[in-house]
Amino acid sequence: MRVLGIETSCDETGIAVWDAEAGLLAHRLHSQSGVHAAYGGVVPELASRDHIRRAVPLTERVLADAGLGLDDLDGVAATAGPGLMGALLVGLSLGKAVAFGRGRPFLGVHHLEAHLLAPALEDDPPDFPFIALLVSGGHTLLAEVRGLGCYRLLGQSLDDAGGEAFDKTAKLLGLGYPGGPAVAQAAANGNPAAFDLPRPMTGKPGLDFSFSGMKTAVLHCRKTASAPSDEGFVADLCASFQQAMVETLWIKAARALAETGLERLVVAGGVGANARLREHFASGAADLGAELFFPRPDFCTDNGAMIAYAGGRRLVAGECDGWDRTAVARWPLDQLAPPERIPA
Ligand code: KG4
Ligand code: ZN
User: Binning pLDDT at 50, 70 and 90, where does residue 344 land?
Assistant: First the structure.
């Protein structure tokens, strides 16, 4: 089965073709960061309009890269949620149109399921079961993953998502958008021990997160600084913030491994692209004797490949949606079920 995957849930237009036997055949991404940079965050209406402009030409290019035409596709998958409603509807409508036009099955994909399955696109994919730590711009959660569609939520952020905390910190420090890469870049020249920022909710039991206090702590440091625009100050504060975030995420991920007795950890979502996080987790996992899996950095952030893969796995299992399938802005991960349990 050869599947076209379409991702338009937020500010990236991602298109890919995945083949159940040959793997990923082609993928392309168009980032809207230039569209939203001036606003310091994603403007939903501008996101929808840009997806409309980009999605069809990008699909044509991906098909050309793969040397395929629309008739060579066996199924189509598009992100159905969670995400920005207007943005989701663009990809979903394109996906349904292609599938309907060619008489192929269509499936709406859960964006977070796609994120946590993304390491399966790499050469050394994880076996089930594993713990997934998903840290993106919209979500931060820990889940026990026993198979495709078998997700038990262990903990989640009670307020800001991890990526959102990076984005807000960048905004507070005037570093621009998207904030994660900007903070990481500034942190490269800073001292991670310069500021003693909180590691929220690590001192008490449980696997939930809370990141809004970290942003307030950054704001306090900035307000009380003698030279808040000084490059060295910004570098030190970014490095300290990044370190606090990485340590907090690791403490909870290690706790999830200990509490479930599992020895495999998958880290996915945009913050998983962070180089300091990857280093810290690699050394922590080595100490625990646990196996650690990341998607390549480009597949940590939003992309079409993970949608083609996650949708493809379910389409191969015989699952498909009706033409009345619509987008859903909110869609809890643990509402998903394995393909065979979902009625046709
Ligand atoms: O998964 P993703 O692309 O989109 C959502 O589904 O939300 O994640 C985007 C988030 C943004 O908050 C972005 O600032 C963050 O991931 N991010 C990073 C890095 N690259 C992206 N955060 C820290 N370090 C990075 N290198
Ligand atoms: Zn995402």
Answer: very low
Tens digit of each residue's pLDDT (9 = 90 or more) over 37-47: 989 899 999 99
Q: What is the pLDDT of residues 178-218, one digit of tens each?
A: 899 999 999 999 999 999 999 999 999 999 999 999 999 99
Paired with 149 in beta bridges are none
- Most ligand 1 atoms within 8 A of CB, residue of 10, 36, 110, 166 to mutate: 166
Nearest C-alpha neighbor of 266 from the set 283, 278, 251? 278
Please tell me if the CB atom of residue 184 comes closer than 6 angstroms to any atom of ligand 1.
yes
- Element of type H or E holding 281: helix 275-288
Q: Which of 132, 130, 82, 78 is nearest to 320 (CA)?
A: 78
Sequence-distant (6+) residues with CB within 8 A of 121 are: 18, 23, 24, 295, 296, 299, 305, 306, 309
Check whether 341 has a pLDDT greater than 60.
Answer: no
What letter does residue 273 receive in the DSSP assignment? G
Q: In the chain, what are the domains?
A: 2-117+299-335 (3.30.420.40), 128-294 (3.30.420.40)
When the pLDDT of each residue in the chain is averaged and rounded to a whole number, the result is 97
